[in-house]
Amino acid sequence: MGYGQESFRSITRSYYRGAAGALLVYDITRRETFNHLTSWLEEARQHANANMTVMLIGNKCDLSHRRAVSTEEGEQFAREHGLIFMEASAKTAQNVEEAFLSTASKIYKKIQDGVIDISNESYGIKIGHVSQASSFGGRDGSASQPGGCCS
Length: 151
Hints:
The chain has 151 residues and is α/β, with parallel strands linked by helices.
């Protein structure tokens, strides 16, 4: 591992603390990025809350003709490690919004089920003024009413 990557890893460790969710992204056209997923996931789980939601994203699905990692391999890795899985393209925006919404929805469900204690900030959730429990927001990510948790 080069200096730049080690330096990046030391910075990212501080971001894991207090994170309710994480997006673990690999490049479907570069197998080595997929091969490093286990170490990145171990590091995230070592430094984060045990209930952190992790979304695995196979990026660059617009370049499927250059695919080095199959969709099935991504699905299997996600299944084996209890992750949500999706392929996306940052270039075309395919499934980008869906990845964030799916991750947020899973976190919200954990809050509703009592898995995440919103009164404990170590879970990464800070609650502001909330007018209704249903003010999670609309499709565009905005709060459904002024003064909701996302305003």
